[in-house]
Amino acid sequence: MLDGPVIAEWLPVSAAALVLLLVAAGVAGWVDAVVGGGGLIQLPALVIGVPKDVATPFILGTNKLSSFFGTLSASWVYLRRIRVQLVLLVPLVAGAYAGSTVGAALSRFVPREVLTPVVLVAVVAVAVYTLFKPKMGLEHAPRHDGRAAIAWRAGAIGLLVGFYDGILGPGTGSFFVILIVGVLGYGFLQASANAKIANLTTNLAALAVYGVHGEIILVLGLAMAVMNVTGGFIGAHMATRRGSGFVRIVFLVTLSILIVKLAWDTVVQFTS
């Protein structure tokens, strides 16, 4: 935790920590809006900024509260500017909710140390695949005709990534994007629009769980939500104006950060 007295009982962080958390929330909202993965910034900031005697569920719940509102604002911008197909979006969202629910239920039985190296390999593979396919996702060219062909693939993507979000979580938005691009042939920009709605669903499911148990630092979460919304609004506008090429670059940078984080977590697991 950053040194300094806490501001108040209902805001258990120092002034310096509050500044750090607000800035982190704004940057995370921007990243999340463009390509997903803002949790790679916001969650570690909360771990650093919140006192160690605050239980982990409160940190996770506060993170979800902020992320939910940021994703909501970004989704609104995307939906105003990017056309989405209900035949894709509905099964994607339904699969994401179901997968997240199952993943969350199983997360207590599957050790993180087993999952982290597996996810690391998967993320490296995605990064290499994207890097060596420079034209992938730059144009919006859906590959599959027919509602059934699109629907079952979208549902499978939602189920798979939703399950991952429930059981582990980092980089969920990025996984939504790359699978929509790679499997369905969507451009990065269109994939991000759909990924935002799916990620909003998984955030809402998790937020409901934390909210029911009262595991949210409400004032801090709402303050960070304001910054997350601001960052998300700016990021979504930049993405829709600059197009898929811009989103692809941010996607690769976000994957690089995720690879470093997962690699560090894996080294710590096997050396501690």
Outline the structure in words.
There is one protein chain. With 272 residues, the protein is mostly helical. 77% of the residues lie in helices and 0% in strands. Helix 4 (86-106) packs across helix 8 (188-212), helix 6 (147-167) runs antiparallel to helix 7 (172-184) and helix 8 (188-212) packs across helix 10 (244-271). The radius of gyration is 18 Å and the shape is globular. The model has no long low-confidence stretch (mean pLDDT 85). Keywords: Cell membrane, Membrane, Transmembrane, Transmembrane helix, Transport.
Labels describing this entry:
0% strand, 77% helix, 272 residues, mainly alpha, single chain
What kind of sheet is the major sheet? none
**Helix and strand element order:** HHHHHHHHHH
Parts with pLDDT < 50 across at least 5 consecutive residues: none
Estimate the helix proportion, in percent: over 70%
Give the end-to-end Cα distance, rounded to a whole number of Å: 22 Å
Rg for CA atoms: 18 Å
Structural class of the helix and strand makeup? Answer: mainly alpha
State which percent range the strand residues make up: under 5%
Task: List how many beta strands DSSP finds.
Answer: 0
How confident is the prediction overall: mean pLDDT? 85
- Number of separate helices: 10
User: What general outline do the C-alpha atoms trace?
Assistant: globular
Main location: membrane
Protein name: Probable membrane transporter protein
Family: Belongs to the 4-toluene sulfonate uptake permease (TSUP) (TC 2.A.102) family.
Membrane topology: Multi-pass membrane protein
